[in-house]
Design goal:
Layout: H1 2-23, H2 27-60, H3 63-72, H4 76-105, H5 107-122, H6 130-161, H7 167-194, H8 199-208, H9 210-222, H10 229-249
Helix pairs in contact: 1-9, 1-10, 2-4, 2-10, 4-6, 4-7, 5-6, 5-7, 5-10, 6-7, 7-8, 7-9, 7-10, 9-10
Length: about 250
């Protein structure tokens, strides 16, 4: 129940984030992040679009995969399901890689948005501390890279399962859950850093509140299905929503 409760807190925080951005005039930094995301996703999507077919064909040309494909060809419906699972897993994998690229590049913006949200929620203000901001940015990049490494390993295991008929469709779903969790993790960690938690403490806290991370990441993930406009606006909004959800769940923090 705690997982579901935290998940709903995270989902509801998005609507509150919109009101908070308007009330506290955070529009400029918000829109700058939107256009940065749009620029990067156009480039990455183009690469993915032209590279995906080549990637899949290269996989299918491997000797082991060829023998598997020949066996599956006896059962056309199984071959169709396997190809669909491969394409889905590949798309989700490329999306995951892009996400971490953006998180690393946009880390300064997200750190700033998270801090401004904290000021609004706690009715306080933080003096400009360039050294701390640089530290937050560095930590954001490190967290993104660590999460990318962890997710890469787990995703590859699930991707291998995509070659198994039926099971492959389930693995595609699990890849989405992983993607949502690690994206939300990165958003929530800005708040952990502000509360002087080290990476281990942050991991323990967020792991105990998985629903917050999954809910935050899921809204971001669903926005991918609204071409350009959806993802462009939801990406920076997720940083604000994560901070709101974090303080609801951890009111004792600053």
């Amino acid at each position: 129940m705690s997982l579901l409760s935290d998940f709903m807190i995270s989902i509801r925080s998005y609507s509150e984030a919109i009101s908070l951005i308007r009330a506290h005039k955070m529009g400029r930094i918000f829109f700058f992040s939107c256009f940065l995301y749009l620029f990067l996703i156009i480039i990455s999507s183009s690469i993915m679009w032209y590279g995906l077919d080549y990637f899949i064909e290269s996989l299918l040309s491997l000797s082991y995969i060829k023998s598997l494909s020949q066996w599956l060809s006896k059962y056309p419906w199984l071959l169709t399901i396997t190809k669909i699972a491969l394409y889905l897993s590949s798309i989700f994998y490329f999306i995951s890689i892009f996400k971490y690229l953006f998180l690393a590049i946009a880390s300064p913006l997200y750190a700033y948005l998270s801090e401004k949200t904290s000021e609004a929620v706690n009715n306080t203000s933080y003096p400009l501390n360039v050294a701390q901001l640089i530290k937050d940015i560095g930590r954001g990049v490190i967290i993104s890279l660590k999460n990318m490494a962890k997710q890469f390993f787990l995703t590859m295991l699930l991707f291998i399962l995509s070659f198994i008929p039926i099971v492959g469709l389930v693995s595609s779903f699990l890849i989405i859950i992983l993607d949502c969790y690690y994206y939300g993790f990165s958003m929530l960690d800005y708040n952990c850093e502000r509360n002087k938690m080290d990476v281990k403490q942050s991991s323990q806290l967020i792991s105990s509140q998985k629903g917050l991370a999954i809910g935050n990441g899921l809204v971001m993930y669903l926005s991918l299905f609204i071409p350009f406009i959806g993802v462009m606006f939801i990406a920076p909004l997720s940083a604000v929503a994560a901070s709101i959800a974090f303080y609801k769940k951890n009111p004792q923090t600053v």
